Fold this protein.
Amino acid sequence: MTGSKPLITLNNGVQLPALGLGVFQSSPEDTVGAVEAAISSGYRLIDTAAAYFNEREVGEGIRRSGIDRAGVFIETKVWITDYGYDATLHAFDKSARKLGVEQLALLLLHQPLTTAFDRTLDAYRALETLLADGRVRAIGVSNFMPEQLERLLAETSVVPAVNQIEVHPYFQQTALQRLHAAHGIVTQAWSPIGGITSYGGAERSAFDDPTLLEIGRRHGRSATQVMLRWHLQAGRSAIPKSVRPARIAENFDVFDFELSGEQMAAIDALDTGVRGGPEPDSITLAAYGRPIPEE
Ligand code: NDP
């Protein structure tokens, strides 16, 4: 893998660039420039979501970069308010229009609605229809825990290509990752450089972790680059977010060094088992059911 920009082959043969740019909490004003900077640094995967309210700016950034749009792997996510068969088909139309594309590379369900799982299943069946109709090249989920993934697999036809979940050195979800591997589902890490460990002045930020800094020192790299290398060598996709061009470039400069088995194991040993993000069960329509606008 060293030296090349790795691609991960999904369970339907589609190729996913392993490393991409995330744009959660990137303001609309910052998103256009971040996407342009990413593409000029070599990124070919952008991860957004209807609920990030910046799909239009992602589309604009790709247009301004001058690259052939077909060369960029765009993934977005359906928000819970738009779950249900017809509502989810319509959610695709809204996202595609904002992004300025006819076809999406990957469409995910953003969260399982654990208290309204039938509605979640209907939303997934809409994704299956969009896949069959060629409107999306691959489909998947996000934040599904083992229980919801098993139920989805039992009650629908298409095995998700991806489950995008919180994975960084302090929270690794290894049992869930093993379940993914058993079913040919790619693990895509959100907060891959532990952003969620640093928001709101958290006590323990992965950016300052002594083990990561020491491994980085041995390779002449930052803790962030070490974390991204760790994901890639473990076969995961990762979507670090930044709105700063220098960091965007730094986060993509990870293809020409290799962590040893011992270094990989030292990072694996940093797992605390403590989730940074919300408990999946706490995501309900009552608490998070914000509408996704048409335009
Ligand atoms: P990340 O782990 O990507 O960390 C982002 C934070 O790190 C930002 O504060 C950024 O600040 C900072 N940062 C970026 N690069 C560097 C660097 N080289 N050195 C120091 N600091 C750096 O966290 P996210 O939570 O943003 O996750 C990444 C992506 O995953 C999201 O953007 C989104 O696309 C996706 N996601 C999905 C979720 C889901 O539920 N499916 C939930 C959360 C995220 P700055 O921008 O100022 O550089």
User: Anything to note?
Assistant: Residues 117-132 form the longest helix (16 residues). The chain is about 40% helix and 15% strand. Residues 22-24, 47, 110, 142-143, 164, 190-196, 207, 224, 239-244, 247, 250-251, 277 surround NDP (CB under 6 Å). Residues 16 and 209 are 30 Å apart (CA to CA).
